[in-house]
Design brief:
The protein is α/β, with parallel strands linked by helices. It is built from nine helices and eight strands. The chain has an eight-stranded mixed beta sheet, sandwiched between helices. β1, α1 (15-26) and β2 (33-35) form a beta-alpha-beta unit. The longest helix has 32 residues, at 219-250. It is globular.
C-alpha cells in the first residue's frame, strides 16, 4: 500500500506537467518526481532544466515514479493516453491514484481505466477545461470515476480545482470534447477568415460587419487571440479534435467536421516551439 499522503509523480513533463508541479509544490506537495520520454535526449534538456528550477526530481523511467507516489498524473499527448495507461498498469499497485489529464475520447479513457484498475490502482478521469498557463493549478478540471470525489478532495486541499461530475468514466471527457468542438472549430474559422481578409484587404469592413451582428464580441481582437492560440497549441489541439472525432463516430455522428478542424489546427501550428 502506498502511504505518502501528498507525494505526486508526473508521466509527461510538458506545459501541463510543469504548471501543475509548480503549483502543487507551492502548496505543500512533497517529493514531486517526473518522467518524460524525452529525458536524456537533446530535445529533453529544456524539460529537465524546468524540473530542476521547480524542484522536481527527474526519474530514469516511468516505473521508478511509483515507488513512493500516491498520485500519478498522466500528462502526455492525446494519442499516447491509452498506451501510457497500459504501460503504467504493469507497475501500479493498490493505493496508487492514476490521474489521467489527457484530452482523449471517452472510449479511450474507458480503455485506459480498465487497464489501470486491473492493477488494483484507482483511475481518475480528469478533463482540463481551459489552457493551464494563466490559472495554473486553479484551472477547472472535471473529474470522473468511482473515486473521483475522494481524489478531488485530496487534490483540492493542495490547491487544485477538481469538480467530480460522475462516477462513470467517460462523461467528463465527453463534456470537455463537446465543448472543444465549438471552441476549436471557432478558432479554425477565425484563422481562415482572418487570412482571407488579409489576402483581399477587407479586414476592416468584414470585422465591422461581424461586430454589428454580434456586438458583444470584438472580432478583430478575437481573431488575433485565436490565431495565436492555434499557432502555439495547434498540434496538441489537433490531436484533441481527432479524439473528438472518435467520440462522434462512436455516437454514430459524422466525424468529418471534427477531422477537418483537426487538420486546420495542425496547419496553423508553428513548426517550432509548439507547446506539448
Amino acid at each position: 500500500m502506498v502511504s505518502a499522503p501528498a507525494t505526486v509523480a508526473f508521466i509527461g513533463f510538458g506545459e501541463v506537467g510543469q504548471t501543475f508541479a509548480r503549483g502543487l509544490r507551492a502548496n505543500g506537495a512533497d517529493g514531486i518526481r517526473a518522467f518524460d520520454r524525452l529525458f536524456g535526449q537533446t530535445e529533453g534538456q529544456r524539460l529537465e532544466a524546468a524540473a530542476q528550477s521547480i524542484g522536481v526530481n527527474c526519474a530514469a523511467s516511468a516505473e521508478a515514479l511509483g515507488l513512493q507516489a500516491r498520485f500519478v498524473f498522466s500528462a502526455v499527448t492525446a494519442d499516447r493516453t491509452e498506451a501510457v495507461a497500459i504501460e503504467a498498469a504493469r507497475w501500479l499497485r493498490p493505493g496508487h491514484i492514476f490521474v489521467d489529464v489527457n484530452s482523449a475520447a471517452p472510449s479511450t479513457k474507458q480503455r485506459a481505466a480498465r487497464a489501470v484498475e486491473a492493477s488494483g490502482a484507482d483511475y481518475i478521469e480528469a478533463a482540463v477545461m481551459a489552457p493551464v498557463l494563466k490559472p495554473g493549478i486553479k484551472v477547472s478540471i472535471l473529474a470522473g470515476g468511482p473515486k473521483a470525489q475522494s481524489a478531488s478532495e485530496a487534490l483540492n486541499a493542495l490547491g487544485m480545482n477538481l469538480t467530480p461530475v460522475s462516477d462513470v468514466v467517460g462523461r467528463a471527457s465527453a463534456m470537455k470534447l463537446c465543448r472543444s468542438i465549438v471552441i476549436k472549430g471557432l478558432e479554425a474559422l477565425m484563422v481562415d477568415c482572418a487570412a482571407a481578409c488579409e489576402a483581399w484587404d477587407v479586414k476592416d469592413p468584414v470585422f465591422a460587419s461581424l461586430n454589428a451582428t454580434f456586438p458583444s464580441i470584438d472580432f478583430q481582437a478575437l481573431a488575433a487571440d485565436m490565431s495565436e492560440r492555434v499557432a502555439t497549441h495547434g498540434i496538441r489541439r489537433a490531436a484533441e479534435m481527432r479524439e473528438a472525432a472518435e467520440m462522434l463516430a462512436a455516437a454514430e455522428v459524422d466525424p468529418e467536421l471534427a477531422r477537418a478542424i483537426a487538420d486546420a489546427q495542425q496547419r496553423g501550428a508553428r513548426s517550432k516551439g509548439v507547446a506539448r
